[in-house]
Amino acid sequence: MFTGLVETTGEVISFHPTAGAARLTIAAPGIVERLKLGDSVAVCGVCLTALTIEPHAVPARFSADLAAETIARTTLSRLVPGALVNLELPTAAGSPLGGHVVQGHVDGTGTLVSIKPVSPEAESGAGGEALTDWVIRLRLPESLMRYVVAKGSIAVEGISLTVAGIEGNEIWIAILPHTFSATNLHTLAPGMAVNIEVDVMAKYAESREQAEIEKQELTVEFLLENGY
Q1: 180: annotated active-site residue
Q2: Which of 15, 17, 141, 198 has the highest Cβ tally under 10 A?
């Protein structure tokens, strides 16, 4: 399980298609030294299994294989060498949940409509990042919109974020300066696809509601209570 609090970013070294899958290699100093064969790592919100781990390479790197489902459902197959990716290791049992429950099971992709600073003329901080909030607008597939609510949680590129508003099938989200500069958000441009994982609690609630409906006996009382 992850929390959507991105630990660091890595850089794509290569993406090689293989028989029925693909292999992704990422430079990730600071993460690689803590990985063991078979460990899970979230890459832009996608839970992958670390395979080849090379802590002594320059730069330190790891590789993971992408299954056909991962390639079809996420943006990882579109990554090119040099692309920045968000990285997070699983949350240890008993650790505080600073974001929200993120499984690393991406539900689909959305499209970045716009990304704009709230104050375009804001001064820069010591690290060079603009000292202003940002607002991103995303267009989501209709199949995912039913799980999205204003002020609810959503994972975008593996980042735990809060939905600020909804208009049709578009949502907008406020981004803090640190989040903008410490993740891959500052490398994205309008029109690009982003990985989306909706709040798993919303999916469980829908499943439970559907199960309760299916258990209902079709009686005259039920029909009258529900407007039939």
Answers
A1: no
A2: 198
Q: Which of 42, 44, 47, 182 is catalytic?
A: 47
Residue 215 inside a domain? The answer is no
Catalytic residue among 14, 72, 105, 114: 105
User: Catalytic residue at 222?
Assistant: no
Q: Which of 95, 124, 162, 207 is catalytic?
A: 162
Could you tell me if 129 and 83 are in contact, meaning their C-beta atoms sit under 8 angstroms apart? no
Measured at the alpha carbon of residue 64, what is the angle toward residues 58 and 65, in degrees to the nearest 5?
140
Task: Report the CATH number that the domain containing residue 158 is assigned in CATH.
Answer: 2.40.30.20
Q: Which residues contact 58 (CB under 8 A, 6 or more apart)?
A: none
Residue 122 shares a structural domain with residue 193: yes
Q: Is 2 a catalytic residue?
A: yes
Same domain, 117 and 203: yes
47 is catalytic: yes
| Strand extents, DSSP E, the chain | 8-18, 21-27, 40-43, 46-49, 53-54, 61-66, 84-88, 108-117, 134-139, 153-156, 159-162, 165-167, 170-175, 193-198
| Predicted confidence (pLDDT) per residue in 40-99, tens digit | 999 999 999 999 999 999 999 999 999 999 999 999 999 999 999 999 999 877 777 778
